[in-house]
Design a protein that fits this description.
Layout (H helix, E strand, L loop, with lengths): L6 H24 L5 H24 L8 H8 L3 H12 L1
Helix pairs in contact: 1-4, 2-4, 3-4
Length: 91
């Protein structure tokens, strides 16, 4: 019996789980995300927090650009996306 390679699906799930964990942390600190304004505040916070973590990783010599998507996200300063992608690929 051959097994299906589900690596891509697992990476997608880990990537999305990272976002869920980040949003959960945000709501514990600042309350629920109810409005579009709340969502944009969350994104700003998530990107700021992710940038800090990415800076630590890169200062330690880790390559956080693990995919084309991570590279494009980094160009757009979407640091939460880069970190989620890094966490999905490092596993």
């Amino acid at each position: 019996m051959a097994f299906k390679d589900n690596t891509a699906e697992v990476k997608k799930s880990v990537h999305e789980l990272q976002h869920w964990k980040t949003a959960e942390k945000y709501t514990k600190l600042f309350g629920p995300i109810k409005t579009e304004g709340d969502y944009f505040k969350y994104l700003e916070w998530a990107n700021r927090e992710a940038k800090k973590e990415l800076d630590v990783l890169t200062s330690r010599g880790y390559n956080v650009v693990v995919s084309r998507y991570a590279k494009e996200s980094l160009k757009k300063q979407e640091y939460a996306e880069v970190l989620a992608e890094y966490n999905a690929f490092r596993g």
